[in-house]
Design a protein that fits this description.
This protein is α/β, with parallel strands linked by helices. The protein folds into 2 domains: about 5-165 and about 350-379, Rossmann fold (3-Layer(aba) Sandwich), CATH 3.40.50; about 170-345, Glycogen Phosphorylase B (Rossmann fold, 3-Layer(aba) Sandwich), CATH 3.40.50. Helices cover about 45% and strands about 15% of the residues. The protein has 15 helices and 13 strands. The protein has a 7-stranded parallel beta sheet, sandwiched between helices. A 6-stranded parallel beta sheet has the order 10-9-8-11-12-13, sandwiched between helices. The longest helix has 25 residues, at about 65-90.
Amino acid sequence: MSRPLVVLAAGGTGGHMFPAAALARALSRRGIAIALVTDRRGQAFALPGGDLAIHRVRAAAMAGASFAAKVKAGIQLLFGTAQAWLLLRRLKPSVVVGFGGYASVPAVLAAHRLGLPIVLHEQNAVLGRANRLVAPFARRIATCFADIEGVAAADRPKLALTGNPVRPEIAGLTDRPYPDLGTESALTMLVTGGSQGASLFSRVVPEAIRLLPDGMRRRLRILQQVRADDLDGVSALYASLGLDAELSPFFADLPDRLADAHLIIGRAGASTIAETAVAGRPAILVPLAIATDDHQTKNARALESAGAAIVMPEPAFTAEALAARLQPLLALPEKLRSMAAAARTVGVVDAAERLADLVLAIAPANGNDSASAAKRSAA
């Protein structure tokens, strides 16, 4: 008898693909076969298992596009749904799991047409537009926040709080204590903004540090992601302040950097929120102002309400405002420690296993697979 199969459908960005990869690992450990349906961007992401089947279908985003672009995207969606229908009809999966992004929509629509069970996973505190489109067809909607917006009343009974799966390297940080910190000891600040935050942070953070009192400034150890084009300029700024900052466009060892950090300054994407909470690190969060449906602000407010973060809207994120936020944190290490403890209360370390349980719970008990038996044997 062949192994039961679960199809993952995800848009080709890290926010969608990272939780999909985590679920793939959890299901593979239980003897479940995995296939991925994505767009051309998603093919660049590596998922566990060298024999993982990756299938590309057509898809295009329609949000914010012109009428002509929406018509073109609609045609792409129709073609993609037809491709996915033929693919799923051949694969006969037990369950299809959609992770959002418009590349996930064709597979979910095709699964609905074929009568296959569907689970959606929403990473943000606002149901994404792609997931919103297909939510009526889902059996369950896995969420990462206790309070989620954009869900129709008819779909609210489907909600299940599982959390956002994180990489194993990040999950391992839950056993790493918050680094020792006193009023005179060095404080490690990790600044991570990705492509849509690095330029803003490169302008604001060094200037904010310049505004700090000399004693506070000398205590700082800076680890900062900086765009390659900005490296020389930002390095010179820190050198003029007498700081030997570690700057890089990308930290390959980011989990280790996160473990060493006393404070994070970053955006408020779903992955950043999940990883910061699981690691148990306090954060100053600057939500991306142009994020769809302002979902990053909703994400950030969830950590702030738990006492784990300070939220600074992008228009108010100035050097003067940041310096004013940093000074009391540097003066009162106990505040940072209490924020770190609060972060751990909202981090979900076993989110991937919770999501795997939810997926396998709706797998058919009979028919062309034995997913339920696989679940029982893994228990």
